[in-house]
User: What shape does this take?
Amino acid sequence: MFVELQCDQFEVPVGGEAIVRLADGRPHSIDVDRDWVTIWDEGGDASVEVISNSDKRVDDALMLAHIWLHRMGAEADALFLDDTVESLGAVDSWDSQG
Assistant: This one.
């Protein structure tokens, strides 16, 4: 994946994902060509986070533990898990689903 204006290139592994954040209100375009994605960001302030397949498995396990703790009535433990993960700087996408 290539982000124009910033001239940044990111490799997304097989089974992985990329989260691209673009500023609201600025022109953007996405061009998909077989094995290559080019994102044109007129604002030049895009951020990209590449998530490997193994990272997704960790997120899935944390989400499952979070949901299980809530269903068992252990909300304090679920909050402790959330706080611990957040303090480690982990991706917080899974905790918004619980």
About this structure: Residues 11 and 78 are 34 Å apart (CA to CA).
